[in-house]
Specification:
By secondary structure, the protein is of the alpha+beta class. It is built from 11 helices and 9 strands. It is 37% helix and 19% strand. The structure holds phenylalanine.
Length: 335
C-alpha cells in the first residue's frame, strides 16, 4: 500500500472510531509491531538510495501524525466510556473545606447586631502602651489592674492589652462627635488555663458618644443585643458596678437560658449570668480629649463567655484545642 492511501484509510478509521478500544486496534493495525506503516518503514531498505530518505521522511512524518490524531481523538471520546484503567465503582475522594472557628462565628454575629443598630467597626493594636491601656482610661498608677500579676509586660515597657477599652481612647482622639463604634479583638491577661480562664480571650468593645445620651439608651441597646443573641424572651437585669473609666458603671446579667432562673450548674445556682460590663463614659476622659458638652456610654463583653453560655460549653479550653469533633458542630461544611 502506498503512503497516501494508507494515510487516507487510517484517518477515516480514526474519524469513525467511537471507543478507546477501537482507537487502540487502529493504532495496532497501522503503528503496531506488525502494523502497515511499520512494515513500510521496515522495507525502506529495499528502495533505491535516492528514494530512501524521501520515503523514510514521509513515513516517519505520517507515523507521528497518526499517533497524534489517535491521541487527540481519545480526548474527545466521552468520559468514562471506555477507560479500563479507571475503576468507576470506587467511592470519590472528598475534598475537605475549612470552617470558621466558633468564636469568629459568634463575634461576627455580635458585630452584625450592632452594625444593624448603626455602629461601625474599628480595630486597635494588641500591643499597647500603658497610656492607652490604663492612664488615658482614668486608671491610676497604683490601680491593682496594672499589677504584673494581671498584665503581660514587654521588655520595652509596652504591654499586651488587657481589654479592648484602649480603642475607645484611640477612636475619641482621632474623631469628633457623634461617634458610634464597636471594636472586636483579642486581649491578654496573666491567667493559667482552667475551665473558665484563659490567658487570651476575645472582647467586643462598644462606644456611643453624642449629646444627651442616657443610661436608658445604654440599657436599651444592651437589652436589644441580649434578645438578638439569646432569644427575644431572655430577661436582662442591670446592677451597679465599678470600672475606672465609666461613671456610673453597671453590669448586665441575663437570666440563665438553661434553667430559666431556677439555678443550675451552668449559672452556678445563681439563676443568672454576668454578660456585659458597661457605664457612662467617665467625664474625666471626655474632658481630657476635648469632648466637653458631650456624653456617652461604653460597654465591653467577653465573646468566649457569651459563647460558653449560648452553646452550653463548660470548658473555655475547648476553644483552643482545635479538636475537629468539637469544631465541626459549628459548621455546616464537614471540615
Ligand atoms: N474593659 C472592661 C473589662 O475588660 C469592660 C468595660 C468596657 C466596662 C467598657 C465598661 C465599659 O472588664
Amino acid at each position: 500500500m502506498d503512503l497516501e492511501s494508507l494515510k487516507k484509510e487510517a484517518k477515516l478509521e480514526i474519524q469513525k472510531a467511537k471507543t478507546i478500544d477501537e482507537l487502540e486496534s487502529i493504532r495496532i493495525k497501522h503503528l503496531g509491531k506488525k502494523g502497515s506503516l511499520t512494515k513500510i518503514l521496515h522495507s525502506i531498505g529495499n528502495l533505491s538510495v535516492t528514494e530512501r530518505p524521501k520515503v523514510g521522511q514521509l513515513a516517519n512524518k505520517l507515523k507521528n501524525e497518526l499517533a497524534e490524531s489517535i491521541e487527540e481523538k481519545k480526548k474527545t471520546i466521552g468520559k468514562g466510556k471506555s477507560y479500563p484503567w479507571i475503576d468507576t465503582s470506587l467511592p470519590g475522594r472528598k475534598s475537605n473545606t475549612g470552617g470558621l472557628h466558633p468564636l469568629s462565628i459568634l463575634s461576627q454575629e455580635i458585630q452584625d447586631i450592632f452594625i444593624r443598630m448603626g455602629f461601625s467597626v474599628v480595630t486597635g493594636p494588641e500591643i499597647e502602651t500603658e497610656y492607652y491601656n490604663f492612664t488615658a482610661l482614668n486608671t491610676p498608677k497604683h490601680h491593682p489592674a496594672r499589677d504584673m500579676h494581671d498584665t503581660f509586660y514587654l521588655k520595652d515597657g509596652r504591654l499586651l492589652r488587657t481589654h479592648t477599652s484602649p480603642v475607645q481612647i484611640r477612636t475619641l482622639e482621632k474623631n469628633s462627635p457623634p461617634l458610634r463604634i464597636i471594636s472586636p479583638g483579642k486581649c491578654y491577661r496573666v491567667d493559667t488555663f482552667d475551665p473558665i480562664h484563659s490567658p487570651t480571650f476575645t472582647q467586643i468593645e462598644g462606644l456611643w458618644v453624642d449629646k444627651n445620651i442616657s443610661m436608658a439608651d445604654l440599657f436599651g441597646t444592651l437589652d436589644s443585643f441580649a434578645k438578638n443573641i439569646f432569644g427575644k424572651d431572655v430577661k436582662t437585669e442591670f446592677f451597679p458596678s465599678y470600672f475606672p473609666f465609666t461613671e456610673p458603671s453597671a453590669e448586665m446579667w441575663i437570666e440563665c437560658p438553661f434553667c430559666k432562673g431556677k439555678g443550675c450548674s451552668v449559672c452556678k445556682k445563681r439563676g443568672k449570668i454576668e454578660t456585659v460590663g458597661a457605664g457612662m463614659v467617665h467625664p474625666n476622659i471626655l474632658k481630657s480629649l476635648g469632648y466637653e458638652g458631650c456624653n456617652g456610654f461604653a460597654f465591653g463583653m467577653g465573646v468566649d463567655r457569651i459563647a460558653m453560655t449560648k452553646y452550653d460549653i463548660d470548658d473555655i479550653r475547648l476553644f483552643f484545642q482545635n479538636e475537629l469533633q468539637f469544631l465541626r458542630q459549628f459548621n455546616d461544611s464537614k471540615l
